[in-house]
Design a protein that fits this description.
single chain; about 120 residues; mainly beta; 7-stranded mixed sheet; about 55% strand
């Protein structure tokens, strides 16, 4: 596997979790990284992303609660999730992408379940 996630689980509303995603160096070094989430019957949605130079972007629903970061020395991207809500329950997927000219190439992790109880 080229992207391996960890850190999901069950937490009460208001709690915190940190997701980690390790990538092979050949993918990580020049890729933007992101976290997406998906619930059954809905489209996968972007939660947060970070470029190779550290610029970040967040979905409005998680701004102020989630923080994405990357450790280039460890080829790892993190998602710190605080003040979790039941509506954050989903399978979270790590994503890496890079552009080859005008062609985007994506890599995905296997997903990790996050469940927030009320």
């Amino acid at each position: 596997a080229q992207l391996v996630e960890s850190g999901g689980g069950l937490v009460q509303a208001g709690g915190s979790l940190r997701l980690s995603c390790g990538a092979s160096g050949s993918i990580f070094s020049s890729s933007a990284m992101g976290w997406y989430r998906q619930v059954p019957g809905k489209l996968r949605e972007l939660v947060a992303s970070i470029t190779s130079d550290g610029s970040t972007n967040y979905a409005d629903s998680v701004k102020g609660r989630f923080t994405i970061s990357r450790d280039n020395a460890k080829n790892t991207v993190y998602l710190q999730m605080n003040s979790l809500k039941p509506e954050d329950t989903a399978v979270y997927y790590c994503n890496a992408y890079r552009w080859y000219g005008n062609l985007r190439s994506d890599y995905w992790g296997q997903g990790t379940q996050v469940t927030v109880s009320s």
